[in-house]
Write a structure and sequence with these properties.
Pfam families: Sulfate_transp (PF00916). It is a multi-pass membrane protein. It is found in: Membrane. This protein is α/β, with parallel strands linked by helices. It contains 23 helices and six strands. The strands form two sheets. It has a four-stranded mixed β-sheet, covered by helices on one side. Strands 1-2 form a two-stranded antiparallel sheet. Helix 22 links the parallel strand 5 and strand 6.
Length: 511
Amino acid sequence: MTDTTSVFAAFRRPALFRKEAMASLVVFLVALPLCVGVAVASGVPAELGLITGIIGGIVVGLMPGSRLQVSGPAAGLTVLVFEAVREFGLGMLGVIVLATGLLQVVLGWARCGRWFRAISVSVVQGMLAGIGLVLVVGQLYTVAGAEQPHSGLRKILGIPGLLADTATSGPALTAAGVGAFTGAVLVAWKKAPARVRAVPAPLAAVALATAGTAALGLDVPKVEVQGLLAAIQPPSLSDLGGLGTMAVLGTVLAFTLIASAESLFSAAAVDRMHDGPRTHYDKELVAQGVGNTVCGALGALPMTAVIVRSSANVQAGATTQLSRVLHGVWLLLFTVLWPTAIGVIPLAALAAVLIHAGCKLIPVKALAPLWREHRGEAVILCATAAAIVTTSMFEGVVLGLLLAVVKCAWETSKVQVTVRELVGGRTVVALTGNATFLRLPHILETLEALPRGRPVELDLTEVRHLDHACRAALEGWAERHREVGTAPVRVREPAAQEAGGAGPGPSAAGG
């Protein structure tokens, strides 16, 4: 049974249809405030977030890949989108998202989906932690109705001044109070009775904050609404020409890497939540690419699979793709039939929802155990997050990937150097493991500390890998050792190399 067939098969089974419809309503209620909040935090019209949620539900929901995963605008891309819109303009956002989608489709067709699973978990956690930090700090300015500084570091450094300005401004204090109330509801909602918790916390918090603002007649900034059709801005031909610049191409690569990694890591997490069919990662990458291509063509926000909505979908009892398709239908009907409802939502309430979501991206509880058990991974996580905060998303992720590669190379190039003194004055130096350039300082220090007047035998039979740099360094040391008048260094190569003639080792002349 194909994925599309399984969706429509639910219509012929009333009990299954009711179950999927109820699950879709839960996902819709979770997705609605997040779609609007992510759009506002990204500096674009609120409707663009809803468009992405609609496409993630209806278009991606019908495609094969992951059956229960739900896609839409994600908090993890908010900072990158905000920077892209500020640097290139809203018109270029559609071009960037369109190019990202096409690249994802190509990567999926090339069967690269599985390779995204090879990205170090510490890099992904560091990426999300950096995004979370910038998102949290940035939304503090939105709560107070202040303009955000451009860089993450300036946002952090500006917090003392923000607090001082808020304390002396009546409107800022009012908006901050609305945000604080919303945050308190989000935190306390998990302690509410089970029947009350049936309403998703983000929806409840935003609804209560909106109702309270209206009842008290508070004058706080609200979401600006311009209508669904008015918000759609397809890329123009002049915008497409911007793809020729390195800055735009770098942003496309950053979007592709982060959106793909987040979606496929989310798929792996969702697979652990249910016993149904597993995710086909290449097909899921193609599905995400098609969704982003459509979003780009409409000038909307980029999409990823979102773990918050996906987990809500699974916990609500969904077993087919119908629930995620219907959640997109509910978003479409809400946006078309009741758009004015968006315009009464206080910006401070949405900012509080994003602050709450950003805090969840920061793995505070996992950091201490990670430091105790895998210190190198903890360093990569912190370095990636710090680089994102102080530089940019793309540079931070690249730094994290480079550190992960260096760490992997360092750990896999472990070599043990053993020195044994034999009868007759001969010294045997045995190398065991992987001898690479990363371990040259240790190897050469040991060899150069040997007495210069004694014959040496270099035992390489237990070396699994000897790279070119290390072999050249050993040859150079052997030549220098012979120059003082001692016997040439004898070398014992691995049996496979001796039999196959894999190339000479360090000079063994006269041995």
